[in-house]
Amino acid sequence: MNPERRELAPGIEANPEVVGGAPVLQGTRIPVWAVLRAVADLGSIEEAARAYEVPSDRIRQALYYAADLLEEIRVGILA
User: Fold this and answer.
1) pTM for the complete prediction?
2) 8 A C-beta contact, residue 4 and residue 15
């Protein structure tokens, strides 16, 4: 295991040597932000999964991670 790699959430990791340290689907170079845009642009989790050639549960992991991150930001602002 790469010591620089950090698991941020189930199925989501960050490594400064991969996509500049952006959160990505584990074991890929697919950034979470790109997954979010793919779901928005393509209209469904299944279409995004097909476009990236990953199982749909990997797309859901990215969505859950993004939702959790937004909730952490909201709570931080209100604290």
Assistant:
1) 0.89
2) yes
12 has which bridge partners?
A: 9, 25
* 33, amino acid identity: W
* Burial of residue 76 (number of CB atoms within 10 Å: 0-12, 13-18, 19+): exposed
Note the Cα 29 to chain centre separation in Å.
Answer: 10
- Please report, for the chain, how many H helices and E strands are present, in that order: 3, 3
- Residues 20-69 have pLDDT tens digits of 999 999 999 999 999 999 999 999 999 999 999 999 999 999 999 999 99
User: CB of 37 within 8 A of CB of 26?
Assistant: no
Q: Letter for the amino acid at 66?
A: A
Query: In the predicted model, is pLDDT for residue 79 greater than 90?
Result: no
> If you count them, how many residues does the chain have?
79
